[in-house]
Amino acid sequence: MSNDKLWGGRFSAQTDEMVDDFNSSIRFDKRLYKQDIKGSIAHAKMLEKQGIITSCELEKIIFGLNKILEDIEQGKVSFSVSCEDIHMNIEKLLTDLIGEAGKKLHSARSRNDQVALDFKMYSQEENILIQTLLYDLLEVILKLAKDNINTIMPGFTHLQKAQPVTFAHHICAYFEMFKRDISRLKDCRERTNTCPLGACALAGTTYNTDRKYVSDLLGFYEPTLNTMDSVSDRDFAIELVSVISTIMMHLSRFSEEIILWCSKEYDYIELDDKFSTGSSIMPQKKNPDIAELVRGKCSRVYGDLMGILTMMKGLPLAYNKDMQEDKEFLFDAVDTVKMCLEVFTKMLSTIKVNAQNMLKSSKSGFLNATDVADYLVKKGIPFRDTHRIAGEIVFYCIQNSKNIEDITLDEFKSFSELFGDDIYDEISLEACVQKRKTLGGPSSESMSKVIKIYEKFLGER
Predict the structure, then answer these.
(1) What is the CATH number of the domain that holds 428?
(2) Residue 158 falls in the annotated catalytic set
(3) Is 2 labeled as catalytic in the residue annotation?
(4) CA distance 232 to 320
(5) Do the domain assignments include residue 116?
(6) Is the whole model's pTM more than 0.85, yes or no?
(7) What pLDDT, in 10s, does the model give residues 268-286?
């Protein structure tokens, strides 16, 4: 009994049912149906242009593929494990629908270049969607920044209070992170924008094809230039998962701060009830589960990156069946980052900023100690000496349970005769923030300039 697979001519027996199931990828690659059909229509048009199929056959193929697309989207199609993947499922559906013309579609291509094409097209489309979600998040961050340009809060290093900043300044650090992520996605998409179709199994074809025509039809910059690399390259998928991993890392860092800020120990923000959960046993609890889940899902995407890198690391040229495993890693990373971006953006847009608590927190921890040192530098003392003096003042305040701004001028003068009445103006929290006018600094003057730059950036999206 011969094998009834589309590739079964060389085989004398049917594959084992367990092998069919193990070998099949239709469970997950069925999501590539749109890309597969779009690529097949472009390929068919090229075949007709080159005289490999007739105009009548092209018309039948396009009609059949569009009908299959419609049926899939209406839930009328049941995919078959025995047809292995989305490519052979659609080819079988097409042949059953239009007859002999359907069998000609696969001329001058292989599943190897077909899957590379579908996967690249999918990666490009999802790349754009992820960029859109990042832009939406940046809009929310920018609005919060505008609303809190004068909201003073502690800046931290080592989770220790360091210097006063503003909430606008703090969250705009994340604007920069996600802006870089958009840049990475755009760069990644540039390197994905070459068309592998026509590379066939690995060595091209003897048919008189026009790869540039297909590339243009599908919106790629140009065809790939090496047929072996065309079918064995998954750099584009690895790079996209890598960029997604970086996005998730940024979301995880932001989530960690939100988790800290909404704790009673900080009480800098309050999460909306719609984006919080409670405890099954402790009725007072309001838990930041959304932020915690986003933080947790970062590790999942890291796993996707390690998985796809490890899968590719030992593969010789050209195509190997191992590469079937690439899709689930990318699909999972894409699904995870999109879900996290959507829910995180909604959560962030509803937070309540407790400005008074931030200000109160800024008044403890000697956040103005550096400004004491800078004050003496302006009086002509070397910074290393002023650093020591400011440190001695902090130690004195700790011993006497005082803040720096609360000690008397005589107490200041006991450390240096150069202190004058103007020291109090120099070390107020407002002054510590507003004096920092360096581009990128926390002053309202600096932040206003940066916000205009961000508005322009978002206006050009």
Answers:
(1) 1.10.40.30
(2) yes
(3) no
(4) 8
(5) no
(6) yes
(7) 999 999 998 888 898 888 8
